[in-house]
């Protein structure tokens, strides 16, 4: 058979078509994945470099691993660790709740809440967290007393600022208010990722805006909210180390208090580093589990095609024996 250049391929029918199909199936059955020498070399090089680095760190006497093991579970370090975890939990809860309110206000059609929310986010994202913590800790310099009362009228109650603003309250206020600004933008992005038709459907069923957010919009937005929220939680764990500048006894402050007495700076810093790595590793596992939970619906939609499991685009799936479909 002569093939003319540029002509359409001839259609093969009959036994010849069966032979062509059989040849293709035979080729696919005996196909092998090509050997990727470059990838293997990169893996080998990576393992060699990682092993060499681990060997150098393990054998370097200046790390004083015996001292690290001695202080890793010391009482003062564990107390500082509990303060770090407590600050992280409380600040994330307050920041997330306040961030949700700010995000809803940011999406409001009313100009006043939208403007106030925007100003809040602009201020707290535009100033360093360390400066905010120091500002809260020294609030009594600006306001010696804090009072509640009628604007331009009588005071109902009054307190000394130093009695209210302790290192703990300053740390919680600084971390929570700063986190709320970032969580507001994360939640707003998640809400915007939900199709507008979901809001319209909820309104058609007579749902209020708040009920539609709770029952329909927020559960769907969680797929977009969870990953960056996990990153913020990990960042919060590390950001709590900043409270050491206001004499808050967190993990880093506890390590600093020890090496200021013993002058074993590197081993105590390694103790703090190892605890931070352990906590963030556990949080990464939890984040992955939550992401898989909220991605169930999306996976089912992708894996199901016409009511049957789909193996790929255009693939035909045979029903199992005895299936009535």
TrEMBL record:
It comes from the Bacteria. Keywords: Amino-acid transport, Cell membrane, Membrane, Transmembrane, Transmembrane helix, Transport. NCBIfam families: HEQRo_perm_3TM (TIGR01726). The chain crosses the membrane at residues 40-58, 78-105, 117-137, 265-286. Belongs to the binding-protein-dependent transport system permease family. HisMQ subfamily. Residues 304-325 are annotated as: Disordered. It comes from Inquilinus ginsengisoli. Gene3D superfamilies: MetI-like. It is a multi-pass membrane protein. It is found in: Cell inner membrane; Cell membrane. SUPFAM superfamilies: MetI-like. This is Polar amino acid transport system permease protein. Residues 81-284 form the ABC transmembrane type-1 domain. CDD domains: TM_PBP2 (cd06261). PANTHER family: L-CYSTINE TRANSPORT SYSTEM PERMEASE PROTEIN TCYL, MEMBRANE COMPONENT OF AMINO ACID ABC TRANSPORTER. Pfam families: BPD_transp_1. Its main location: membrane.
């Amino acid at each position: 058979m002569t093939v003319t250049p540029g002509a359409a391929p001839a259609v093969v029918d009959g036994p010849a078509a069966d032979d062509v199909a059989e040849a293709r199936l035979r080729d696919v059955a005996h196909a092998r994945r090509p050997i990727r020498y470059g990838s293997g070399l990169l893996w080998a090089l990576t393992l060699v470099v990682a092993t060499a680095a681990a060997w150098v760190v393990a054998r370097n006497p200046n790390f004083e691993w015996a001292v690290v093991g001695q202080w890793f579970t010391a009482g003062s370090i564990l107390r500082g660790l509990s303060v770090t975890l407590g600050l992280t939990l409380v600040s994330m809860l307050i920041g997330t709740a306040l961030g949700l309110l700010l995000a809803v206000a940011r999406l409001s059609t009313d100009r006043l809440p939208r403007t106030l929310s925007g100003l809040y986010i602009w201020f707290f994202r535009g100033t360093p967290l360390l400066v905010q913590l120091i500002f809260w800790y020294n609030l009594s310099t600006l306001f010696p007393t804090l009072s509640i009362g009628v604007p331009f009228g009588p005071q109902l109650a009054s307190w000394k600022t130093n009695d209210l603003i302790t290192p703990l309250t300053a740390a919680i206020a600084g971390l929570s208010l700063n986190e709320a600004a970032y969580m507001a933008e994360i939640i707003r992005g998640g809400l915007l990722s939900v199709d507008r038709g979901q809001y319209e459907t909820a309104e058609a069923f007579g749902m209020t805006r708040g009920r539609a957010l709770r029952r329909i919009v927020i559960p769907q937005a969680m797929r977009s909210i969870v990953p960056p929220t996990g990153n913020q939680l990990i960042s919060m764990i590390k950001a709590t180390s900043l409270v050491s500048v206001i004499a808050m006894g967190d993990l880093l402050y506890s390590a600093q208090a020890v090496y200021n007495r013993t002058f074993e700076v590197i081993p105590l810093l390694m103790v703090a580093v190892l605890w931070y790595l352990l906590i963030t590793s556990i949080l990464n596992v939890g984040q992955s589990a939550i992401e898989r939970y909220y991605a169930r619906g999306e996976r089912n939609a992708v894996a199901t095609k016409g009511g049957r499991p789909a193996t790929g685009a255009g693939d035909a799936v045979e029903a199992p024996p005895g299936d009535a479909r």
